[in-house]
Amino acid sequence: MFDNVDISSPLTLPCGATLKNRIAKGAMTEGLGDSLNRATEGHARLYRRWAEGGAGMLLTGNVQIDRRCMERPGNVAIDGPQSNEAIAALRNYAKAGTVNDTHLWMQISHAGRQTPASVNKEPLAPSATPLAMPGGQFGTPRAMTGAEIENVIRRFAFAATVARDTGFTGIQVHGAHGYLISEFLSPDVNVRTDEWGGSLENRARLLLEVVRAIRAAVGADFPISVKLNSADFQRGGFSHEDAIRVAAWLNAEGLDLLEISGGTYEQPRLVGLDDMTLHPEKSETRKESTIAREAYFLEYAKDIRAAVTMPLMVTGGFRTLAGMNAALKSGTIDVVGLARPLCVDPAIPAMLLSGAAQATPAYEKTLRIGPGILGPHSRFNLVKAMNGWGQQGWFCLQLLRMGEGKDPDPKMGVFSAFRNYAKNEAKTAAALQRQ
Ligand SMILES: Cc1cc2nc3c(=O)[nH]c(=O)nc-3n(C[C@H](O)[C@H](O)[C@H](O)COP(=O)(O)O)c2cc1C
């Protein structure tokens, strides 16, 4: 039935919008916001380059609905009336990212307890459950009041409206990776006893209310997507069975695209890494068949496919043309998500679509601060964490380079990336504090 589908096939979404092909760029935080957390010319440069690179749809890095709880000091935040300058910068960004008939969807988020201490030492979260990670980078969160939760729903709807009005062609709610909505979904993090905690119905209430409020605000013909974990991979956390049920509820809301990912800062499975916690005994292992797979959440997507009819996207590990087309032809997914390869080769979608390339770059396979026990799967927590942040910094610095109009630098060292990324973040955080 899906034999004729491949990465070049257009896709019409439930709301009526059409993506010109099946490759989407996964959301990647850019750190290009200015000290007032507005979009900049750097965003326009970066997204024009990606739009010219051939993907059917680009997801922006997470844009924050509350500047007190950002994922990073250089995020864009839309959390109140926008100045003329802020609106102009967003319009400029949207115009650049939609050239070449490309869809540009804004990912909107609230970082919850994963807000770094450099942004806020006491961020808001469902409960006062701190992250169990080494390094003291995150403060202990404060449990939100019912009024604060209602306020978050309104903020998501507001940011979505600003996205639509400034020329973005869709939005995605970040419901994955251990940020606020994902924290509400997790019984390990969310220990509330009111209507926002306890049963899965209660834990999913925030996500569903956010989706409903956004639909009411943006209308029936504007694409709405959610990024959801296939599981948190943490014992006692949001399970795969939970994910299947939540996906079915989102399907009933008329969602346009569900993107499937997995993991949190404690369990960074989204980028293929494992346990970073102080409690390794709580880490859940992945199925062997999943580890062997190129796209590591595909097995989980199959179970979700069986429960829903809405379009599905998987991001994480896709690197070969054959693997992408096989996943589409199997009918499990409708859109292939690619993230890290586009940090190094922004035009790789066009190369895959024309057949000029059979695979994407896979730099993550070789990026490490040292061999053997010093690699990313080291049993030493600190080494593992340095590898994790070093890799992340390496990809982030490539985005900053493109934002400055430079080419990516594949020869960049991981250790220097670790150091330079930390320096850059400290500088951005200091600029934020001065405001
Ligand atoms: C530098 C970097 C920044 C990221 N930022 C975000 C983000 O803002 N929002 C999000 O949902 N995922 C984010 N991710 C995760 C990616 O969207 C994607 O799920 C992950 O990289 C796996 O896909 P890949 O194997 O194609 O890279 C980020 C990943 C990287 C490497």
From TrEMBL:
<keyword id="KW-0285">Flavoprotein</keyword>
<dbReference type="InterPro" id="IPR051799">
    <property type="entry name" value="NADH_flavin_oxidoreductase"/>
</dbReference>
<dbReference type="InterPro" id="IPR013785">
    <property type="entry name" value="Aldolase_TIM"/>
</dbReference>
<dbReference type="InterPro" id="IPR001155">
    <property type="entry name" value="OxRdtase_FMN_N"/>
</dbReference>
<dbReference type="GO" id="GO:0010181">
    <property type="term" value="F:FMN binding"/>
</dbReference>
<keyword id="KW-0560">Oxidoreductase</keyword>
<feature type="domain" description="NADH:flavin oxidoreductase/NADH oxidase N-terminal">
    <location>
        <begin position="10"/>
        <end position="352"/>
    </location>
</feature>
<dbReference type="GO" id="GO:0016491">
    <property type="term" value="F:oxidoreductase activity"/>
</dbReference>
<dbReference type="Pfam" id="PF00724">
    <property type="entry name" value="Oxidored_FMN"/>
</dbReference>
<protein>
    <submittedName>
        <fullName>NADH:flavin oxidoreductase/NADH oxidase</fullName>
    </submittedName>
</protein>
